[in-house]
Amino acid sequence: MSHGGTPQEMSARAAGPLTGEAHVPGDKSISHRALILGAMAVGETKITGLLEGEDVLDTAKAMRAFGAEVTRHEDGSWSVHGVGTGGFAEPDQVIDCGNSGTGVRLIMGAMATCPISVTFTGDASLNKRPMARVTDPLALFGTQAVGRSGGRLPMTIVGARDAVPVRYVVPVPSAQVKSAVLLAGLNAPGQTVVIEKEATRDHTERMLAGFGAEISTEVTEEGRVITLTGQPELTPQTITVPRDPSSAAFPVCAALLVPGSDVLVPNIGLNPTRAGLFYTLQEMGADLTFENMREEGGEPVADLRAKYSPDMKGITVPAERAASMIDEYPVLSVVAANATGRTEMLGVKELRVKESDRIEAMATGLLANGVAVEAGEDWWTVEGAGPGSVAGGATVESHLDHRIAMSFLVLSMSAQEPVIVDDAAPIATSFPIFTDLMTALGASFETL
Ligand code: S3P
């Protein structure tokens, strides 16, 4: 689904405390992977808790175009009848991945070693984003790619007929690149090795092991060395998708900022490669606790309780933590604006190539609303003047980026004057129930 539609101007307030339980949707990263690996197994994979956001629905549509049978059942569960590793059929239409970088990059990997040609496109945001980071390593398998200048979509990928396995050192901290190479390696004979210097989210590795692939990770001086044996027969799985920590971040941060709040966010995936924001908030002095820690479907899970936290302090968030909270910096900067003192965010260059340039988008919007921000190529700082100190009152641009839109709506809830987001429609890509869920906690939204 692409965002060519009418922009939806929106603002948010919180007249009183936010209270109650926030049942956020399923994890976006895990949802994409469940559909793609389900489509690459032979037989029926059952999925509960799948995120039904536009990004994931686009991936479901793509898997159907490759020949898998993907069904949503009345009880909200999904099933995928896969076609087997290397069994993708050539789609007879262009594959539109909408707003989703994860969708397009993972699917490119999954089809790269099948003897088919596929043309990919996306919305205005996705068609600006770099694809060479994926097509460069895929070329090592024998895959060809022709896109627009700068390695951008629309792009046609010609899958390798006789793929060879590869050894690849991922040059940027990116789970999407790592995953694309691993998915391509599934249909190459022999061992494909991916080395990452910094640990990024490891859902692909965990899920591949769950589907019965031979995969191991060794931590060496070179980094994490992931070895996958190609051409396994993947066994269909029953997958329970944990709720998304990146979506949980919004009600959690709103609760920390709105006076008197006390919100429980149950069943949140707390994979250590994803949980950096929550530890950062605790370090800042947030009243945020993990209750009922447990393991579900190979992923650590907990219930999060967040309470109003007027005593948070600015801190330095080290570069080593960036990968584990890369999607959470926009909302962290909103918390930082309401903490006391400077928050420094280091080693965050990747934020510049997300659904928008997130450093630029947040810095511009925060400045317009009275927050002091400084930014460089791979760092930025936010000067917090304490709880309730943000003036607000300005209109900000969301740049087709769901997380920018939600972050500024959280800012609006805690600012002196409402902040107006020029287009909140992209929220549907990852968190379609955001406004309903926040309204149930006590927030109010105005569509302008
Ligand atoms: C994702 C990886 C991250 C993240 C994105 C989801 C994934 O992107 O920002 O929202 O599911 O693999 P990069 O791999 O580009 O860091």
How would you characterize the overall build of this protein?
With 448 residues, the chain is an alpha/beta fold. It folds into 2 domains: 10-26 and 242-447, Alpha-beta prism (UDP-n-acetylglucosamine1-carboxyvinyl-transferase, Chain), CATH 3.65.10; 28-227, Enolpyruvate transferase domain (UDP-n-acetylglucosamine1-carboxyvinyl-transferase, Chain), CATH 3.65.10. The chain has helices spanning 28-40, 54-65, 101-111, 132-141, 175-185, 203-210, 245-257, 276-284, 329-337, 358-368, 402-414, 434-441, and strands at 10-13, 19-21, 42-48, 69-72, 78-83, 95-96, 117-121, 144-148, 152-158, 167-170, 191-196, 215-220, 223-229, 238-240, 262-269, 287-296, 299-307, 316-317, 340-346, 372-375, 379-385, 395-396, 420-421, 444-447. Strands 22-23-1-24 form a 4-stranded mixed sheet. The protein has a 4-stranded mixed sheet with strand order 2-15-17-16. The chain has a 4-stranded mixed sheet with strand order 4-5-3-14, covered by helices on one side. The two termini are 23 Å apart. Shikimate-3-phosphate binds next to helix 5.
What is shown here, in short?
This protein has 448 residues and is α/β, with parallel strands linked by helices. It has helices spanning 28-40, 54-65, 101-111, 132-141, 175-185, 203-210, 245-257, 276-284, 329-337, 358-368, 402-414, 434-441, and strands at 10-13, 19-21, 42-48, 69-72, 78-83, 95-96, 117-121, 144-148, 152-158, 167-170, 191-196, 215-220, 223-229, 238-240, 262-269, 287-296, 299-307, 316-317, 340-346, 372-375, 379-385, 395-396, 420-421, 444-447. It is globular.
